[in-house]
Amino acid sequence: MDRSGSSDFGGAAATTGRSNPAPWSDDKESPNNEDDSNEDDGDHTTPAKVTDPLAPKLANNERILVVSVTERTRETWGQKAEFLLAVIGFAVDLGNVWRFPYICYQNGGGAFLVPYCLFLIFGGLPLFYMELALGQFHRCGCLSIWKRICPALKGVGYAICLIDIYMGMYYNTIIGWAVYYLFASFTSKLPWTSCDNPWNTENCMQVTSENFTELATSPAKEFFERKVLESYKGNGLDFMGPVKPTLALCVFGVFVLVYFSLWKGVRSAGKVVWVTALAPYVVLIILLVRGVSLPGADEGIKYYLTPEWHKLKNSKVWIDAASQIFFSLGPGFGTLLALSSYNKFNNNCYRDALITSSINCLTSFLAGFVIFSVLGYMAYVQKTSIDKVGLEGPGLVFIVYPEAIATMSGSVFWSIIFFLMLITLGLDSTFGGLEAMITALCDEYPRVIGRRRELFVLLLLAFIFLCALPTMTYGGVVLVNFLNVYGPGLAILFVVFVEAAGVFWFYGVDRFSSDVEQMLGSKPGLFWRICWTYISPVFLLTIFIFSIMGYKEMLGEEYYYPDWSYQVGWAVTCSSVLCIPMYIIYKFFFASKGGCRQRLQESFQPEDSCGSVVPGQQGTSV
User: Fold this and answer.
1) Which of 181, 296, 402, 432 has the lowest tally of Cβ within 10 angstroms?
2) DSSP, res 521
């Protein structure tokens, strides 16, 4: 893929613009982002005078405006590989390491792969393909795209932006924990190896001790809870305490890395993903080789994969499989739209969807071997069963795995590369979530924000960091879990359902398939059209309903949340969800004209003033 913008498209658009005035020539805003590459207007030379006898006579100011719109080209990825790595990096996150292996063995081991693969084929993959195709065809973010699809649903874009802010508030804090561990690993002896540290209690005991009981706590557990988090100084959400300076410094370092990865758009992010997307695979393979060589590893892997077919009769297994594939692939966060919008128009997004989603699922499967080989080893060392060793979520990667590393020879080296892997896994995903919001706002407000991307990214990250400070307090770990459930956890399911309904039912599968045909040369097959029309929306609605019914289970049982916190949580969820109906009301009553039928048409039909996005046709902005 060429590193330059799509110059052939720009030339064709400019020629067309001279013979047909762009449909938005009287509008104050041009479609998509007007100047995504932050180039100054003075860099564009005035084109030669038009001498075509068939060209209509235009006023000078009209001609100048058309040239200024059509000559600007949208930035594209320097190489095709950069786009693929960015998508893979976003999809493959910490959940692939700490959630999938636990969900798999809890729900029948190898038998769980049956519903997992079914939901991948019929639910997750069609949505993944849809977002890549939408972003590539319309070449804009999650806000501007709706005037081309269903203007009344622009609230979906605002909801996504709000959800991305909530994610940034807690997800970067988790990466900050990994940074803390990384720096703590640069010693001759890992600090969670023994019980003779100032933060240890009388209950601390080595896991290899014969006297280790359920009342005892391991050095690794006390290091995480009493040294890294110092959660004993707070009282959950009732009293969170002050901000812990060392933890805040680690999280601040994460935000600095994120800024310098995003400030230049795909030009900077495209270079960073070569490290952040590939490094985890190198480390995973190294850890896998080390893990399978440990005593007891075979029992761990057997426990991981042994199918328990009777569990497939339980509906919870199927709901867990559907939720896992959805949150693993990550449609609906606006990231796939944003990343694919920087592709060239004729890029094969269908092949990209198959490649990246397959790699994501295979990575989850690989991570299961890495985790369970070590869990098998820990069960062997502790002379206990594997189900008493493992933990789900952060506890798995911040307590159990470091505990196992501490018993290995060369533990310092293994600790360093393990936490480097966690940091790179997390950074890729936070890049994607924030880029979705940045692209959307730069496209929607090209003059105010698009031309000042570096400053806007700086202010945005500073705002999110300030909002995230409560997660760095002594009670912050409870807030992290709280935001994970009520921030994106519930709201994103409803938002994506509305997005899918807007594309497949209002815009129409036939029209969407025609768009894909213009890019790839052929329409999607019958399978995809059936999935888009019926299966995928039902898939999303089912997950949403069951998640609402079991939201307390999503919070976990380690901490008892006060009654008032549930009301606050639902307020957080509604803050993003309500963007959708509020914008529909605004569009119908205040932003549309005429009678009821005309207002409905203006609200739910694509705007004619958007023009074409097909290269070479009038109105193209690629």
Assistant:
1) 296
2) S
Question: 415 a known binding residue?
Answer: no
Instruction: Report the C-alpha gap between 328 and 362 in whole angstroms.
Output: 11
Q: How far apart are CA 46 and CA 43, in angstroms?
A: 10
Distances in whole angstroms, Cα of residue 233 to Cα of each of 156, 227, 476: 40, 11, 11
Residue 8 annotated as lining a ligand binding site:
no
Q: Is 572 within any annotated ligand binding site?
A: no
Alpha helices (H) in 349-399, listed in sequence order: 349-382, 394-395
Tens of pLDDT, residues 574-598: 999 999 999 999 999 998 888 999 9
**Which ranges constitute the DSSP H helices of 71-200?**
80-91, 94-98, 100-106, 113-119, 125-138, 155-184
Phi, psi of 407 (to 5 degrees): -90, -5
Count other C-beta atoms under 10 Å from residue 396's C-beta: 20
Check whether 92 is labelled as a binding-site residue.
yes
Burial 424-444 (b: 16+ CB within 10 A, else e): bbbbbbbbbbbbbbbbbbbbb
Q: Is 328 annotated as a binding residue?
A: yes
Contact 142, 157 (CB under 8 A): yes
Q: Shortest CA distance to 413 belongs to which of 283, 246, 293?
A: 283
**Which residues, including other chains, have CB under 8 Å from residue 104's CB and lie 6 or more apart?**
112, 113, 116, 304, 368
- Catalogue all structural domains in the chain, each as residue range(s) with its CATH number: 79-475 (1.10.4160)
pLDDT in tens, 371-407: 889 888 888 888 888 777 766 678 888 988 898 899 8
Q: 425 among the known binding-site residues?
A: yes
